[in-house]
Amino acid sequence: MSLIVIERLAIIGVGLIGGSLARALREAGAVKTVVGVGRSRTNLDEALSLGICDEITQDAATGVRDAQLVFISVPVCSIPSVVAEIAPFLSPGCIVTDGGSVKTAIVHECEALMPPGCHFVGGHPIAGTEHSGASASFATLYRGKRCILTPTEHTDAAALGLVSRLWTLAGAVVCSMEPGHHDRIFAEISHLPHVVAYALVHAVGTADVEGENVLSYTAGGFRDFTRIASSDPIMWRDISLMNRKALLASIDGFSRSLDELRLRIDRGDSEGLAEFFTIAKQFRDGIV
Ligand code: NAP
After folding, report:
1. In sequence order, which ranges of the chain are alpha helices (DSSP H)?
2. How many CB atoms neighbour CB 72 within 10 A?
3. pLDDT recorded at residue 2
4. Taking Cα atoms as reference points, which of 66, 72, 77 lies closest to residue 38?
5. What class, spelled out in words, does domain 6-177 have in CATH?
6. What is the pLDDT at residue 72?
7. pLDDT over 90, % of the chain
8. Do domains 6-177 and 181-287 have the same CATH topology?
């Protein structure tokens, strides 16, 4: 019995996230033909030679022709404009879904762009690395990881069911939540850590200790903590702008925490410092 769920899948943005979904669905035997759409020929040629895609094109309208499902995995600020570009060329019944890390603005704008009979389902796989492009993708990226779908009162139940089934076939554990709730949670646990990592490396990289390049002395701790500051700057520019309100609230909470810590250091409050570090250590030990 054939497992094929999708005859023709278009992936717009064949990078880490889009390329890994294509690879996982291929491995599961769930898709017949994968069409890769992108801007640069080099990345698309790589996707073709790695066997991620069967066909490639730089023209989004051509890429989505006859596709039953379109997965959009470009930086978040470009997702609504990509959907606006492809909307007139979607086949009747086509489902459009995405992997963007911010959901409220994308879901709101993309639902409104769907032609009659086509359906948008917002999604966000909770998996990734600091590497980019087709060559960074791998089939097991989503195995055992969560994928959050963000349906609204306008979401078509059958479309939601199909997108959920595909993520399950890709190895993910699917759950659903309201887009605004998603954005507030991920501002805290993902977007804040990235901006803090970028700020830390920026501060240390520009620090002047008697003319020494202090970065040359960094070892395990600094490197572990700042790994995510090697992520793609354009992706994080877009996420910071699109989730601005929730991220600013998270940065304010972090600033209060840092101010409190600074105060305890300034006062030489050894008990207060030990208490602060103990509470943080307990939270951290609880998640690993
Ligand atoms: P990536 O590896 O850089 O892949 C993005 C791809 O999109 C690139 O190959 C790029 O290729 C293409 N692209 C960029 N703008 C485009 C446009 N306007 N039209 C068509 N193609 C375009 O990035 P990624 O890590 O896969 O991230 C993709 C999405 O997944 C983002 O929305 C991000 O928020 C989300 N996400 C990322 C992670 C993570 O950890 N990386 C995790 C979960 C979700 P060309 O430059 O050749 O066009």
Report:
1. 16-27, 41-49, 60-63, 79-86, 104-113, 157-169, 179-186, 192-205, 220-226, 233-242, 244-267, 270-287
2. 28
3. 59
4. 72
5. alpha beta
6. 98
7. 96
8. no
Query: What are the residue boundaries of the structural domains of the chain, listed by start?
Result: 6-177, 181-287
Residues near 41 by beta carbon (within 8 Å), at least 6 away in sequence = 58
CB of 132 within 6 A of ligand 1: the answer is yes
Ligand 1, atom 41, lies closest to the CA of 128
Average pLDDT, the chain: 97
What's the gap in Å between 73 CA and the centre of ligand 1?
5
Report whether 52 contacts 71 (CB < 8 A).
no
Ligand 1 centroid distance, CA of 75 (Å): 5
Model confidence over 277-288: pLDDT tens digits? 999 999 999 998
pLDDT tens for each residue of 215-235? 999 999 999 999 999 999 999
Task: State the architecture of 181-287 in CATH terms.
Answer: Orthogonal Bundle (1.10)
